[in-house]
Predict the structure.
Amino acid sequence: MKILNIYNQVLSCIFFSLLGLQVKLLLDDLNAETIVFFRSFFGFLMMMILIFSQRKIQLFKTHNLKIHFLRSIFGTLAMYFGYSSLQYISLSEATSIGYTKVLFSSLMAIIFLKERINLHSLFLIFFGFLGVFLITLPTQSTNLLGIYMSIFSALCVAGGIISISYLAKIENTLTVILYHSFISSCIFLFFFRDQIDLDLKINFFYLLLLTFTALAGQYFNSESYKYDKTNKIAILSYTRIIFATFFGFIFLGENVKSLAILGIIIIAMTTYFIKAKGKKN
């Protein structure tokens, strides 16, 4: 595994953890429909400005519109249910439960991308998932609706990962993000136009900042899948749980269970061994 891919995925996890924090804070003032729409729409505008400023008009060209559309459907559903789940469960719980995507994406990679998975990677997947299990052990405060939303979001994220891993090898990363932002905006405007709040006098800046964070996470995530197998990169994405738990504890006052700490240690060890193996290769 290339070291650059490792750093790209870790940076992606940091930005996506910050995104979860921003969404949870914004949900106090805005509904999930408004956040998802403007996150996509502002993202599209930013990509347009970037592409025209660099005079890279060729990035508008694509021969994979169907795959972009499929990726956008997965992404839209993942955002909506993932953001909505944060109304019911903590940031660390939502992020951790979302890591069932690792199993979903690994299975999809084997079925749809015909990737082979060795015993070492398989062991690391389930060892890392043990850490997820310890973090997400139910408590009296567990909200089942939030958990179900997170699981469905994770399934959609897995579909998005498969789409990205295919597109990233044949398309420019900026093209992938551009089409995702545009198509997602159209989908959400069509289905939720009555729920979207257009009065952004107070939260305009925060939505712009959220969009930048999301785009940065998307960019580094797409880059990380360019030159390596989906299974290996998906394992590294476990580090997002560590960052989300830290941000939730520091900024939201979310308590961390003792078993959750053990789970984080297991995840950290898994990531360390992946990185060590990458250096050898």
Observations:
- The mean pLDDT is 83.
- The radius of gyration is 18 Å.
- DSSP finds twelve helices and no strands in the chain.
- The longest helix spans residues 3-26.
